[in-house]
Structure formats: C-alpha cells, structure tokens
Amino acid sequence: MGTHHDCDVLIVGSGAGGAPTAAVLAEAGLDVLVVEEGPWVDQGAVTPFSLEQMERQYRNGGLTVALGRPSIAYTEGRCAGGGTEVNSGLYRRPSEQTLERWREGWAIRDFATGDFMALCDEVESALSVQTVPGRHTPASERLRAGAAALGWAHDEIPRWMTYPEGDDAESGQRQSMTRTYLPRAIAAGARVLTDTRVDRLIVDRGHAFRAELTDAEGGPVTVDFADVIVCAGAIHSPALLQRSGLRGLIGRGLAVHPTVKLAARFGEAVNVSDDVPVHQVKEFAPELSFGGSASHPGLIALALTDAWSTMRDAITAWPEIAVYYAAITSQGRGRVQALPGFRDPLVTYRLTRRDRDVLGRGLARLTQVMLAAGAREVYPSFRHAPIVRNRADLATLSDRFSATAASVMTVHLCSTVPMGDDPEVAAADSHGRVFGTDNVHVNDASLLPDAPGVNPQASVMAVALRNARRFVEARR
Amino acid sequence: MRTALDPDGPFGRFAERLLMLELPDLPDDRRASTVAFVSHRAHQVPGPLRAGVTLLSVATGVAERVVEPDRVVAFLRSTELPLVGELARMVRSLAFAYVWETWPSTTPTGGAG
Amino acid sequence: MVRVRCLVTGGSGYFGSLLVERLVADGHEVRNLDLLAADHPDGVEFVRGDVRDRAVVHEAVSGCDAVFHNVAQVPLANDEYLLRSVNVDGTRVLLEACSDLGVGKVVHTSSSAVFGVPDTNPVLPTTVPKPEEAYGHAKLAAEWACLDAARDGLDVSIVRPRTILGHGRLGIFGILFDWIADGADPVVLGDGANRYQFVHADDLADAIVRAGSSAGPAIFNIGTDRFGTMAEALLHVCEHAGTGSRVRRVPAGPTSALMHLTARLGLTPFAPYHWLMYSKSMWFDVDHARDALEWTPRWSTDEMFAQSYDWYLANRASTERADASHHRRTTPQGALRLAKRATRIFPLAESTS
Fold it and tell me: Less Cβ crowding at N or C end of chain C, within 10 Å?
C-alpha cells in the first residue's frame, strides 16, 4: 500500500502550461493537486546554464535526443516551474499570421486574435516581461552591432526579468513560474507534490479517474480525481497519454525549431558565463532567426568539439568567445513513441531537404553577422568545419557544410497533441480535451498546432490561461 | 547493480582511452573524475538511447578483445557512421564540457594550465 | 499615403514578389495575377491565371485603381512564340481590360533590351529604341501597345530597368560568383572597359511605385548612378570575396562566337542577349527619373555585387532550390565547368581602381 491523495483536478507538470493552469483553477476555488516529477529549486540556488543545473533541473541531465539524420539534441526542464526556470526567459508573442494559420488550419474555435493578445498582455504583466533597462552583455551587443553593420533587421527580445538591484542585463532576476504563477496557485490553496512522477492514468471507456505515481524513493502513490490536465511538455504529455492507452494522433506531429551554432572570438573579453544575449536578428524571419546562447567555458569547449583538431587552440581564449545560434522554421515533423518497459519515450525527427538547406544558409548568414560584428575568428559547429576569419573562409564553409555533419539542437518542442475541432489533424479539441475522453485534458506546448517561429512559451502560457478559464466556466 | 556504462566497464574504459588520445596531458586524477562524470551522465540518458549506448559499449568491449583496443578507439573516434559515431561524440561532448567548466584554464591538450 | 487597390501581374516571380511586398509595406491592398501562387504576406489576394486569358484578366483587374504589369517571358526561355505571345499579346489583353474597367494608372515594366546595343551612351529618355534580338523586339512591341493605349486615354507609364541585381538575383553572375568563391578567375570579354550599369531590385521597386503615383503617360529609364566598367565591377567583387581570384581578359570575338555556338548546342546557358551585352557599354541617364519622380538610387554597382555575392555564399551551403524562378536560380553551368579551370591562361585585366 502506498500513499493516496484525492483531489478535484490533478495537474501533471508545473511549467509554462501547468503553473498558469494551477493558478487559474485554484483561484477559482477548485481543489487542485499539482504533481511535478522534478524538485523545487529556488531561483538563484543553482548557477544558470551550469552542469549542476543540468543535473538537477533538466530531464535526463540535458542529454535527450530526437533520432534522425541528423539527430537533434534537445533539452527540457524537469523541476518545479519547468523550462521557465532554466531557459533564457525570452518572451515573444506569436504573430497574427501564426494565430490565423492555427485557427484556420486546425479549426480552433474561440481563438480570436484580439482575445489572444489580451491574454498575452496579462502574462506580460504577471511575469514583469520587459527589455533590459540598462547595459546589455557584450555578446548581445556584438550581435546587435553585426546586424546593424549589415543593415539587417534586428531587435531585443523582452524577458521575464526584473531588475531590482541595478539595470544591467546581468542583474536581472528571472520571474519564472516558481516566482509567479506557482506561488499564486499555492496561496489559493493548490497543493504541489514535487519529486513525484505520474506513470500512467487509469482510463475506462474514455473516462480517467485515477493516476498511478512513483515518489522519489520509488514508492507507489495513487491519486483519484474528477479531471486531469496533463502539462508535462511536448515529449512527456503524449508519452503519458500513450502509456495510459490513448493513441490516435497523439505524439505524431512533433514540431521543433532546429538550430545550428557557432562560437565567435572577438578581440576582447565578451564572455559572460551565466547570462545569454537578448538581441535577435530577424532579417530572414520567420524562416531564420539568429541569437546568442549560454557561453560558459564548458559550453565553448562543446561548441568546438565537432572540429576539435582544427579549433582546439581557441579554447584558451574562451573569455573572448561567445556562442550564437541560427534557428529555422522546419517543414519536418517528428514523433514521440512510448515503448513498453522503458521510462522514457523514443523520440524521432525527420528534417526535410529544405530544412537542411536552410540550416546551411542560416549558419553562413550568421557567420556573416559575426564577421560584420568584428569577430576575429568564427568556429562553426560541424565536422570538418574551417575556422572562418574572412569572406574567403566563408566560401570554404559554404562549400563544406552538411547538416548531417552538424550539431543540430533545439529547445523548442511542441505540437504533439495539437488542438482544434478538425479531428483529421488535431488530437484534442479546441480547448485541449483529448479526443476519445471526457475528462483528460492537455494544456501545454503539445497543443500548439505547429512551431510558432518565435520562442514559444508566450504562446504556451496564453493558451494555458485561455483553456484554464474555459475549464472553470464549464465547471460552473 | 553493475552495468556496461560504469567507469570500470567497457563504456568507461572506452571513455578513458578516448580521453588519453584527445586530451593527452589531462592529469590522471582529472581524467578519472571526468570518466566518472561521463559514466554518471550516461546512466541518465533516456532509456531507449541508453539501451543503444549499452549495446555499443558491450560491442566495443568485445572488439577490444579481438582487435587491439587502440585501433577500436581510433575507429570509433573518426567514424562518421550514423549512431555508431554518436558514441565518441557523446563522450567527447560530455567530457569537454565537464573539463572546461570544472577547470577553465585547461590547455588544448588537457594540461592543467 | 492613400490606400490604393493594386494589381501586380507576375507577382509570384522574382521581381513581382518584391514589388508586392513593397506595396503591402506601403499600406496598399494588393492582388497578384500569376500562374503560380507564392508565399506572400497575409491579405494579398491571389488570382491564378494566364495574362493572355481575357476572362481571368478582366476578373483580376476589376476593382483595381492601379495595375503594375510585370509578367514577362524571360529571354532564357529561348522560345520565340512564347516571347511574343506572353510579352506582346498578354500586354494588349491587360491594357484592354484596364481601359474597359477605367483603371486610373498602369505601370508597365519593360526592359533595356529594347535598346539592343546602343550607338551612343548615355541612353536618354529620347533615345529611339533599336532592339537586336527576339526578347528586345517583343518588349518593344509591348511598349508600342502601351503607347497605343495611352493615345486612347489610358494613363500608362513605362519603366525600363537596367540589369537587375539584389535579393538573390544573380543571373549569369551566379556562374562568376561560383568561380570566385572557389578561387578561380572570372573573365571579361576584351579589355572589360565597357561601362555597364545595373539596378538594385529595391531601387527599381521604388521607382515603379513612384511612377505609379505620378501622372503619365511617361517613360522612365532606371539604373544606378554609381557604376563603372565591367572589369571594375568584377575586380571589386573579387576584392570583396578575398579568395585570390583575379579578373582575366579573353578575346571578345572568338569568345562571343563560342558562347553563341555552345548555347545553340545546349552546352552552355547563354541566351543571345547575354553574350550580346556582356562586353558592350550601356547606361541610362537617370536625371529624368530623378527629377520627375524624386527618386534616388540607393545602391551602387559595387554594393549590389557585394550583397549578391554574400547571398550567393550563404546559399552555396544549401543545394539549389528547384522551385525558384529562372533568374533567381544560379544558371546551370554545363560546359563552363571546364572553362572555370582554364581561364588562368589568359592575361589579367588591368586594375583600374
């Protein structure tokens, strides 16, 4: 016999989807239990982007891969607050075109652009979304200067950060879920159970009534509920549903923003180990966006490993080096498949030929930005890459590049349980109720019909608020 | 329970040999702690992938008894075969990230700097 | 600016797409008549059809205040029947619809090919056209159709662009950029001292939009105001590329003959107009356009070449896009791969910079 809990609504996951959902439901007076697989780690307790953070707050220590040619490494948060705790906190609304594409393509009801943007206003206020009031990091400033020198469109992405102790980028404090929606939910009476994993839901003829869980010590836990809302992210939400016997389109439409990266060495110190650039180059958006990544020395070594024999001497200059990425909107799709006997699902992703081409174009264009920004040497991350010091080397780069030789990665995962009223393309209805069930809901990045072409968590939070409100209304 | 991914198992021995080639000047104690880290992380990768890494490691261990171990490492280090090539890539990525995050002044050949 | 309902014909093509985007950015309502749909900003209405089809053209024109005519059968297609029927008959059909429906303004995109190889430079607005190959003749006949319509009261302005570059338009220069990127030596015909003018697609779009809001009928010749010789253009792009490529001179007469012959045999991708113009001088006096339209070209030849070369480099990292239009795709090289290695035997072009 293990521990048992009863609740009205079980929410699985506490990230950008689960936390706002919990706050809305709890504040409406519902009896909410939030179950989070990872630990609660206060902001500031762990160095951002460090290996220790990966160990404690990332799923599988950050070593997750979607298999394919090439395979795509991805990362997911696994802690109270989910990805919002460990990512860059960059916030971008989806474009009106994206919202229209979702509304039309997936027949999403009650999805007016104006209403959606009002939800974004609300999220922005709750999370104190803002631009850096003072000085930017040197790496961000370099990216901006490079784009400006080329005359390419660029801007600063706001973040969920406050600046109580100074106005520089580096003094920002993340207003992640553990600082915003989760405390609100708890204050309104929600219970949060961390370090506990939901193994499966018991579903009988489309009606779920119990969840089987495992606590940190491996002990069994059961939870009985009237409704369940799965917010475990675009990989683990579909995996949990599949383990619970729900299939159909679930897990099939995985969409990501594949990225390739490079390291750039400037003539002076640019490295800031625990913060990321906030500028983005949008000249070729939405097809291509360029930005900056975390750049502590370990990550710089990582960026040099693909062509280590050529580039290894650069590592001693790491204070002058920063890492940047080129992200694409992909036409490919992937799949999440729960396998019997394994805790984790098998994830695959197939890039199209066009995707591979755009990755190459992106890396070459990003290298141009770096040269224009005054980089002395650029180290692209693919096997047999040359060190690029000038345009002649850029010609060598564009000649040698192949996406299958590159370190392709992503941090934006979505669309594995797309919402909409068209069952040909959607796996849940317009408000996230899984087709074929009467009380199993999804409310996270899995619902976004495709990758939004911008950092997706603004969309995730706004969709979560929308569906949570709808859920509350339907209960009344 | 002992697994093929332990520091003193075939995976750990492969990681050790690879690091001796890639970072020849890495001091012994640092190499040992790097191998321990890489092995620890290899245990955390998602189940289906872990199964693949385990399989590759066992195959490497068998190959090392048949062929000279250094030649096995040399092959895996430079192969561009899909999946098979990922083993060295994974070890190298984890090890390099760990080495330079832990000892940022390490030289390009692994020296204490 | 007043919001105007515009029709762009050929709005899915290379330049048509840029013009559509420019008009949308200016706040206009835009419709696109083309054979193929394109990725356009939201709100752009698409009418699928052939510009020679009266019914479709009538439907596309109706309700529009301004029409920008960009449909053209390009010379690379090498099909004289198509050259005439699309360029001439299509223009007539469109102009008739515009007259019938009372369109307020038509801008027709013509070509500097109507001048063939001009006897004197600069080419002035008053210079009499004198085409020398099929494309030029067809484009001139289309201009005559415009003049006829203007005589009958339609406000039609004609814009003649010099060779267009920018936004990935490389044409035959894609071949030279490929050579330069690999450190091979590009060539000029003869001494390369022919003065040659280009126009950036953005500058052309700007001129066309301005022509659209100024009363006509009128004719504008459009090109950059900062340009030099063909040899200088190539020397400067070689310097920009930094791959060690140097510009070589090959004898003009025999090379032209060879280009002509190999093109006929289908071994190289040169249309008559290419080999005709590559070694000849042509430039427009753009003062007329500058005064009448308050238009100023922003891009010099060197800036255009540098931008185009960088575009080429980025796209070299990917394979060719099969769906791109004729001008955008780098022309297939055919027998030129051999020439690429052989040009080093020729003398260097003098540095004139």
Answer: N
